[in-house]
Design goal:
Length: 117
Amino acid sequence: MFVAPINTESLLAEAQAATLYLNLIEQINKDFNLANEGIDFPLSISPEELKIQLHEKIYRMIQYKFAEYLNLLYIIDVSEPEIKKLDGSDLVILAEQVSFLILKREWQKVWFRKNFK
């Protein structure tokens, strides 16, 4: 049964432990490219660097490309009720929370593909 991780660090640790970290990076790259938001995380990127770069990308999208940001959330299929629960008063914190929701949804896709194919 899929159990959603509680934070980014545990998610990335779980992905590495399950040897699915590379699949997670590939899924993130694929969905960002589907949304025409060219991002190409190298497969050699460290979990900490992935977290930082994803956070920065989401922060910039919220600030400067809001329509594209909403499209990205739609393409990745991030839970709308979870997004609505977030407090948008601090953009840095909001971007961090949204980054986690994106990682969580991408991890869910990778996990299900691995366990139910």
